[in-house]
Amino acid sequence: MADGYNTIFFQVRLSGSVNYFSNEPFSRLFTSSGARPAYDPLTFAVEAAHKRGLALHAWMVTYPLSSLRGVPHPIARNNPSWVILHRGSRHLDPGVPAVRTYIAKLTADIVRRYDVDGIHYDYFRYPEEAEKFNDRSSYERYGDGMSRDAWRRSNLTAQLAEVQDSIKHLKPEVQVSVAPLGKLRKLEDLGRPHGWTAYESVYQDVETWAKRKLVDFVVPMMYYKDDLYEPFLIDWQRRVGRYIPVVAGLAPYRVDAKEEKYPWAPEVIQQQIQIARKHKAAGVCMFREGNIGPAQPRLRTLIQRSFAQTAITPALERGLQSKPAQPRELQLTVQEGKRLKLSWQMPRGDRRGISYRVWATTIHPNGKRESMLLVQGLRNTECTLRLADFQMEDCLELGVEAVNRLGVATPCDKAVEFNLHQERLHHQQQRKP
């Protein structure tokens, strides 16, 4: 929160192992033996994130399975026709309908049992060197006369459609997103080779996903710089951003000398944030937290400067169908001359997934008005503020918005006013002997 973030992507599924209570094998991240820990990490993470005003999206690695060096995954033992060996690893075959149903059921199970705000798919694609991926058997069985390229793209699209069907009756407010490759399609006028792309290389037809609203937003992994960053961001905005939000995925790990042979300067990330704003991207996402903490103080400072105020999550169009009720009866009380307690009322009804933002408008002695977001992600209908956080402006207006899980907000019926200068004078007079 102090760094301006609003959402956490918490990895719940690795290559076939998980970090939550599931029928799939538990990962070895929490216990060296792979046994379940005494607590459910996903439950803990959701509660901790919501307590701090952060949304949490469950991040799932979709099709890769464990390496051949490890113990065979139960799927490989029980359903060998679902699995293809490729470049030394096992991969689920998206062309097998039963595989897509399996992924949809895993997703629905998380949505049903956990209070997550979204589902985020990683490795939602065909693997590297996909031209060598041996899915001939499933193509011959299910290809239905399409070219193999078109069939592969249709499989990933069908996967998203099945996911949506599996969760919309459970919690329609849960968001679905994908992290595609950072380069959407080949740019003929780029003037240089630029490697693999989402559409041509790994069969991610993101434009179709966006047009059909099968995903709520995308986070392309734009882990490149210079002319391999901005031109592709422009292309993402032109082709996809007209339909759904595009959040640029940035690569703080490239700043880390321990991970990169030729590490980037921290200022590269700051510049990429500015470029994302220039082209009106819906936001930026950092991969990953381990590379922006205490080990990288310069980078973290630059990010904090770029987000002096917490970023607001994009409002999704379908959220208008469940617009929140209006907060009413705002009340403000002063506590010991040091704190302000703001409270409000909400009409009775379904408040599932509703959170609150608190805004402040300071009115300066010269009449200038300046608004700022104080806090978002509140789950309770009250908020405590410190008087010391405000300057000696003549007047302060406080307002509240109710926000649903799709980012759509409803402002309060009436803000409350407070004269900071008079309150400080009053408190000083009370302290005089």
Structure described in brief:
This protein is an alpha/beta fold and 433 residues long. The protein has helices at residues 41-51, 74-78, 97-113, 136-142, 148-167, 198-202, 206-211, 230-239, 266-278, 297-306, 420-431; strands spanning 7-13, 55-61, 64-67, 83-86, 89-92, 118-122, 175-178, 217-218, 247-250, 283-286, 328-335, 339-345, 355-363, 369-378, 382-386, 395-403, 409-411, 416-418.
Question: Could you name the key traits of this structure?
Answer:
globular; 23% strand; disordered C terminus; 5-stranded antiparallel beta sheet; single chain
Would you kindly provide a written description of the structure presented here, covering whatever features stand out?
With 433 residues, the chain is α/β, with parallel strands linked by helices. It is 27% helix and 23% strand. The protein has helices at 41-51, 74-78, 97-113, 136-142, 148-167, 198-202, 206-211, 230-239, 266-278, 297-306, 420-431; strands at residues 7-13, 55-61, 64-67, 83-86, 89-92, 118-122, 175-178, 217-218, 247-250, 283-286, 328-335, 339-345, 355-363, 369-378, 382-386, 395-403, 409-411, 416-418. The strands form five sheets. It has a five-stranded parallel beta sheet with strand order 1-2-6-7-8. It is globular. The two termini are 41 Å apart. The model is unreliable at 425-432 (pLDDT under 50).
